[in-house]
């Protein structure tokens, strides 16, 4: 087996040559020999390859457009974002803050990162519950803080998709309040939760956060060929010739002034 690490530019085709190192006067004249071209395995860039799909515990540079030790990787690391899970969590709770931490980034590069991270499978059992201070209402989040269940009695959880428009509005306010008070989230195991409907099981809505973030940032993504694994390295990831810098997205709504709505509406619609 032959491998090639001799040059940065890949050629993959090589020849073997042989010649006599020492000769004596009694030996016949031996000519040099050379083989026909053959292909060798090329391992350059293996340690920099992107993962398709990425996993939650992958280093963040495994995502497209984030080169290992590149400027985006360094900026994110300085902000404590080291893994795909770290990035997804901040993107779920505050996409504007994530963009601010990434810094000036071409719009196309940002779209590419989001498209790639959306292929991540949320396959762990990490679950969090947020309990309101004055009401018997609980919100359940998966490991990247996507809302996957709501309880109005503290026991049975239903899917957010099953709520009425009024209920969704109030729950959205509660969710944003939870995102502003992350220290109040309680870690639980999802098997300890009682689901009223199958859709309420943790993990069903694993990509709602990224889809919501795309809408908030007014970015339309190209879906053709999306989600298919293929090999790639980080060469040139951060050098796209795109001068359309996207660094001032719509901010996540501040719900401080809207909490009065929560108090006014009350929870009369709770079963």
Automatic annotation (TrEMBL):
Family: Belongs to the plant ACBP60 protein family.
The protein, known as: Calmodulin-binding domain-containing protein
Species: Phaseolus angularis
InterPro entries: Calmod_bind_C, Calmod_bind_M, Calmodulin_bind_N, CBP60
A Pfam match: Calmod_bind_C
Entry superkingdom: Eukaryota
Compartments (UniProt record): Nucleus
Record carries keyword Nucleus: yes
Molecular function in Gene Ontology: calmodulin binding; DNA-binding transcription factor activity; sequence-specific DNA binding
Domain Calmodulin binding protein-like N-terminal: residue ranges: 2-42
């Amino acid at each position: 087996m032959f491998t090639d690490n001799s040059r940065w530019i890949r050629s993959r085709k090589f020849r073997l040559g042989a010649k006599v190192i020492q000769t004596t006067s009694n030996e016949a004249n031996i000519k040099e020999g050379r083989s026909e071209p053959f292909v060798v395995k090329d391992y350059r860039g293996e340690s920099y390859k992107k993962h398709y799909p990425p996993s939650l515990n992958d280093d963040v540079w495994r995502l497209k457009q984030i080169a290992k030790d590149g400027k985006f990787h360094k900026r994110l690391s300085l902000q404590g974002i080291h893994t795909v899970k770290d990035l997804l969590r901040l993107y779920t709770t505050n996409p504007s803050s994530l963009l601010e931490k990434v810094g000036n980034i071409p719009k196309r590069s940002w779209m590419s990162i989001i498209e790639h991270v959306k292929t991540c499978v949320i396959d762990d059992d990490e679950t969090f519950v947020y309990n309101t201070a004055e009401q018997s209402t609980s919100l359940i989040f998966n490991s990247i803080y996507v809302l996957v269940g709501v309880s109005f009695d503290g026991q049975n959880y239903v899917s957010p998709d099953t709520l009425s428009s009024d209920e969704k509005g109030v729950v959205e306010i509660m969710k944003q309040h939870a995102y502003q008070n992350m220290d109040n989230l309680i870690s639980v195991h999802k098997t300890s939760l009682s689901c009223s409907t199958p859709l309420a099981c943790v993990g069903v809505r694993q990509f709602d956060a990224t889809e919501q973030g795309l809408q908030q940032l007014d970015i339309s993504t190209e879906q053709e060929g999306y989600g298919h694994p293929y090999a790639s390295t980080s060469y040139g990831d951060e050098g796209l010739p795109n001068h359309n810098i996207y660094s001032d997205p719509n901010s996540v709504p501040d719900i401080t002034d809207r909490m009065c709505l929560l108090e006014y509406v009350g929870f009369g619609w709770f079963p």
